[in-house]
Amino acid sequence: MGLCNLPSISFLMKIISWNLNGIRAVAAKGLLDIIENFQADVVCFQETKATPEQVREVLFPLTNYEIFAHSGEKKGYSGTAILTKIKPMQVTYGMGIAEHDNEGRLITMEFESFYLINTYVPNSGSELIRLPYRQQWDLAMSQYIAKLEKNKPVVWCGDLNVAHKPIDLKNDKANYNKTAGYMQEEIDGMDRFIAQGMIDTFRFFHPTTEKYSWWSYRAGAREKNIGWRIDYFLTSAHLKDRIQAADILNDVMGSDHCPVSLVISE
Q1: pTM for this structure?
Q2: CA angle 227-228-233, nearest 5°?
Q3: pLDDT in tens, 26-69
Q4: Enzyme catalytic residues
């Protein structure tokens, strides 16, 4: 058999995504042990609220991961990080648009057969002040993904700050068009990603499951499971046959979000 006819050898890659709402706060709650328990190949964090140096200081004991971190101009705000056991081909920060790249919200990591994008999508705010900006971000992100897909498929994860369908939050009617994360403009943004071929991996495997990834700290919302599903793994349609599992790990504590997971063949 010639080399060109050899079957391709693939392996399963486990990826975790988690909004920490402050990496140093979760570090005091056992973050390093939690990461080890994930047994993941790649771990993506959002809202680290730390500089790259502070992220590396917290994660220094994890010698089996290479650490990439990104922070914004405003100290203690936003921030993203990726831990990986698999050496990436390339890592870039931001989407190349100055107005969207000053808050440390996006890291792109290139692997052999896909791009991994880790994103902390802007919140529209309690008074919806940033809703117009959020719409600009969603459009720019759609264009950024389309640009990458010309080269290879995309796995996009993170806190996308939107509940896409009524099943994705506990009190949909009370929040629709009133609350950041469930405004029609934000839903339209998610619809655009799905229309361009992105697959919501959790819904792909669990079409009717009511499971949430974020709960308010108020009024015992997590204990009562009054939550929202706003943390996602979306993949390019070309990866459909390679996504093996997707879940929400709502038994993992430490943040107001819980981690979400994806298993994909690389």
Answers
A1: 0.95
A2: 135
A3: 999 999 999 999 999 999 999 999 999 999 999 999 999 999 99
A4: 120, 159
